[in-house]
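Team,

Forwarding the record for the chain on the shared tracking sheet. I've put the sequence and predicted structure together so nobody has to dig through attachments.
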Amino acid sequence: MTPREILSSPEPSRKAELVIKLSEFEIPPTQDILLVGRKAPIGPEAARRMVDAVSPEQYEIISLDHEIFEAIVVKKSLLTLLPKDKLLPVVIEEGNRIADANMVIKAQVNISVQVSRTVDL
């Protein structure tokens, strides 16, 4: 394609899809998981105080060695369904795609466990 042909070609099509989930404000506002950025307005200690004040013993704060996130606040009940080493890498990877170090990202996580068993007849 010549430069003239490139200039006369139609504009590429650009679309954006929005998925908006509206829900009632919850206490604590962390939902299931909170990813705390390294330069976020609240740090892990403030997040700890917040969740302990409104939902004592329900969340675990885990410090991270990560370039963007300093800590992750996770609802303990999720960790009974899925071990940390399985859950956290997935959440961090997805959070890493949309966040920067100044952000605090909350995530809603739904875990369903599928079991299929056979028995001898």
